[in-house]
Amino acid sequence: MTPAPVHAHLHQSLLLRLLAEQGMVDTAVAIGDVAPRLGDWLDFRQAISLHGVLNPQAPVEQAAHTQGTAVLSAEALTRHVDKVRLQLVQSISQGAPTGSGLTRIDMPPAELDEPPDPKTAYEPYRRFYAAHQRQMETVIRSLRSQVRGQLSKSSSALQQLATLDAAFENILSEREAVLLGKVSKLLEKRFAQALKQHLKKQADSAADEATPVQPLAWLMPLRQGLRSALLAELDTRLQPTLGLLDAFNAENT
C-alpha cells in the first residue's frame, strides 16, 4: 500500500504519528508552511470575512446569546472540558458511560463469515468508525461553542479570539471533515490488506496440510487499531477547544 503524503510540519499530531507508524502516511515530505497555504484553502468571500475579523473597526461586542449567562471560573471551565473529553474517551474505549447522554456505539462482534467476503467484511467497522466520528463532531462542536461563549464575556482580546475561532471553524470545518473522512478509508485499505494475507495463509495451510491458521488472529490488532485511531482523532479534534481554554486560563488564573 503506497503511503499518502502529508505535511511534515504537522508531525506532532497524535493522529498523524499513529498513521505514520502504521505505514499509512508518509511524514517525510515537506509541502510548506500552513500560513501561506491557508490562502489556497479560502475563497474570496471567506478571505474577506477573515480579514474583517483580523482587522475589526470597533471593539468586539459580546454575542447576544451569552450576555445573560454566568461566567465560569477557569477551574470550572477546565473541569467541564475534561469531563466531556473523558466521556468521549470512554465511549470509544468501552462504550458511552451511563448518564453521559451519549449514544452507545458498540464495536462489531469479533466474528466473520468463513470464508470472509473481502467486499463486505469491513462494512460493520466502517459504520462503527463513522458513528464515532459523527458523535465526536457533534459533541466537540458544542463544547467549542461553550468555551467560546466564556471567552466572549471576558477581555476584548479574548472576545476577538472567540470571534476569530468561530470564523476559522466556519471556514475550515468542511475541509476538516473531508480530511478526517479519509482516515477510515486508510484503515479500510489496511484491513483489506490484512484480510488478503490471512486468506492466503489459510489457502497455503490447507494445501500443505499444515497447522490451521487461527481464524481471528489477524483481526484483533485491527480492531484495537480502530479504537487507537479514534482516540488520536479525538485528540486532534479537541486542539482548537484546548487552545481556547489555555487562553482563558492564562488570563483568569
Key terms:
DUF3348 domain-containing protein; DUF3348; two-stranded parallel ribbon; mainly alpha; 2 strands; disordered N terminus
Account of the protein in words:
The chain is mainly α and 253 residues long. It has one domain (71-252). The chain contains seven helices and two strands. The chain has helices spanning 14-21, 34-41, 44-54, 74-94, 123-151, 156-208, 219-252, and strands at 4-5, 25-26. The chain has a two-stranded parallel sheet with strand order 1-2. The protein is elongated.
Mean pLDDT over the full residue set = 83
What's the total number of strands? 2
- Rg estimate, integer Å: 22 Å
What's the helix count? 7
Decide which structural class fits the backbone. Answer: mainly alpha
Q: Topology as H/E string?
A: EHEHHHHHH
Shape: elongated
Helix fraction?
Answer: 55-70%
In this structure, how is the largest beta sheet organized?
A: 2 strands, parallel
Sheet-strand content, in percent, reads: under 5%
Assembly type of the shown chains? single chain
Distance between the terminal alpha carbons, to the nearest Å?
A: 49 Å
Total number of domains: 1
The side-by-side strand order for the widest beta sheet comes to 1-2
The residue ranges in which pLDDT falls below 50 over 5 or more consecutive positions are 1-11, 62-66
